[in-house]
Amino acid sequence: MVHPRPSSHPSLRLSARGLASALVLPLPLTLALALASSQAGAAENGLQRYSPGVGGSDMTAPLVPGWYVQVPLVAYHASKIKGNDGKQATSATPVDAQGPVPAQPGLRSNIGIAADTYALLPRLTYLSAHRVLGANVGFTVMLPVMNRRANFTASPNFAGTPYASGGPAAGFQPLVTAGINARVDATQDGDQSGLGDLEVSPVLHWEIGDHQAVTFAPTVVLPTGNYNVSRRVNTGYGNFYTFRPSVQYSFVGDGWDVGARTVLSFNTRNKDNGYYSGNMFNLDWQAMAFVSDNWRVGLQGYFVRQLSRDTQNLSGFTATEITDRNLRKEIISGNKSRVNAIGPAVGWLMNGGEMMVEGKFLREFGARNRTEGQAFWLTVSKPL
């Protein structure tokens, strides 16, 4: 069959600008940057208020009373965004009626992404000689500084629509695609720099013998970062709080440096759009071998699992606010984010521990409902 050219159907003639302006595109795309994270209807904008992979040398460095500073630098890049089946994510991209072509409310597009996060995560920790329940008591605080950027693309799936190959409007496929991506560029892409969300926590640290230690930190994350509900890309995660208790175990001895940290994240409602990001579980781990007094090499990695699905409660918002601010999000029942990562790591101790420098490269795999990428970490740790 010969596909009709657009110019042969006067009733279907549309300019690229006219078609773009006629598209109805809620596009509830999500961005998981290491964001981590994270990820497509799982956690708001695919992000998680924790940096998977941040655990490393700090999990097993001996903690004695005093002040400590740690400065991790991370560069994360993602070129894939995965859906609930582990394949390329899709998003609703309905098109309004155009002349004899009826509206296409069921049209969906495959979503592409190029996302980068560059973050400095300076942390200050104090551990006192005072003991509670046998543990040394202290506190820790961290304030991120970061740059986030994301570029989305949409490839419409025209099957079953008049725009499909052989359909009456097949010649308009390029215009529809261009119009959708013009709207994506205007509403979804972004590049933002600034402060992130402040983390504060008391610390309880137990030395349990045989070169082993356990640390408990019930962290609270405050919405101090730069955030605008109308932007897809922000340096803050939203106008809500996160309670994030963590427990970590470490063993340093017999030529090995082994540690693991488990983290649970519980989020309150985002006051700006009524969104509840699902509860999250993280496990950071490392297994490092000392090859000399100053050098150690090994593997590090993480597991991320979303425990409960996202929800949204728009009570308190007017119909006009919901429409004008595009607050309503597409939440697919059962969509929970997950990802794993593993990679090599190397650490250097200066003068037996006056300073530690560690580098690692972690590649993600097995992502669901979030981005999948890789990250390079460089961390400097030093007692003061």
Quick summary:
This protein is mainly β and 384 residues long.
Description:
Helices cover 8% and strands 48% of the residues. It is built from four helices and 18 strands. The strands form two sheets. It has a twelve-stranded antiparallel β-barrel with strand order 1-4-5-8-9-10-11-13-14-16-17-18. A two-stranded antiparallel ribbon has the order 12-15. Helix 1 packs across helix 3.
Per-chain topology:
Elements: H1 16-22, H2 57-60, E1 66-82, E2 90-92, E3 108-120, E4 123-132, E5 135-142, E6 145-157, H3 173-187, E7 190-195, E8 199-209, E9 212-221, E10 242-253, E11 256-267, E12 275-276, E13 280-290, E14 295-306, E15 311-312, H4 319-324, E16 338-350, E17 355-368, E18 370-383
Helical content class: under 10%
Strand content: over 45%
What does the main sheet amount to? 12 strands, antiparallel, barrel
- State the domain count: 1
Quaternary? single chain
| CATH homology superfamily name | Autotransporter beta-domain
Q: What is the topology, as strand order, of the major beta sheet?
A: 1-4-5-8-9-10-11-13-14-16-17-18
CATH architecture heading:
Beta Barrel
Number of strands: 18
Return the structural class: mainly beta
Taking Cα atoms only, what radius of gyration do you get, to the nearest Å?
24 Å
Mean pLDDT: 84
The separation of the N and C termini measures 76 Å
Low-confidence stretches: 1-41
Text of the CATH class: Mainly Beta
Count of DSSP H/I helices: 4
SSE succession: HHEEEEEEHEEEEEEEEEHEEE
**Can you tell me the CATH topology?**
Lipocalin
Shape: elongated
